[in-house]
Design brief:
Elements lengths: L7 E7 L2 E8 L2 E6 L2 E5 L3 E4 L3 E7 L9 E4 L5 E9 L2 E8 L4 E6 L2 E5 L1 E7 L6 E4 L1
Antiparallel strand pairs: 1-2, 1-5, 2-3, 3-4, 5-13, 6-12, 7-8, 8-9, 8-12, 9-10, 10-11
Length: 129
């Protein structure tokens, strides 16, 4: 699934987590532990019938796609937030009540964000790389 600027949604393994992030130029960038991490091995989200739903403070709407898991076993969801006029894809971590996005080498917490929701789970698959 690509945005207008060629940014794809994906996920990658990092430490003992599977973390959602953004893919551009064959690199998956994710926010984790206060900084950003670039991964060359990742999965790309391929799906139809999606919407971005306004969310805040760790809320996750119905039909949000659980797209990862923390090293402690908490579910992570796909979120995006607007920063200086640009959308960044990151991870919603409900137990932290934020969406973390990777911006300029830092993991930035956002209280207001949008959550990716899937209308038909049968149309969803992850393709490994």
């Amino acid at each position: 699934m690509a945005s207008e600027d060629g940014l794809y949604v994906g996920r990658a393994h990092h430490k003992d987590s599977v973390t959602p992030g953004s893919i551009k130029d064959n690199i998956c960038t994710l926010a984790w532990g206060g900084t950003t991490h670039e991964k060359k091995e990742f999965q790309v989200l391929c799906v139809k019938d999606i919407n971005w739903v306004k969310s805040w403070e760790g809320s996750v709407p119905l039909y949000a796609l659980p797209a990862g898991e923390t090293e402690d076993g908490y579910a992570l969801f796909i979120g995006r937030a607007l920063y200086e006029g640009v959308y960044y894809v990151g991870k919603i971590q409900p137990n932290h009540q934020v969406c973390y996005i990777p911006v300029n080498g830092q993991e930035m917490p956002c209280l207001e964000y949008e959550t990716l929701v899937i209308h038909n789970y049968n149309t969803m698959e992850h393709i490994g790389r």
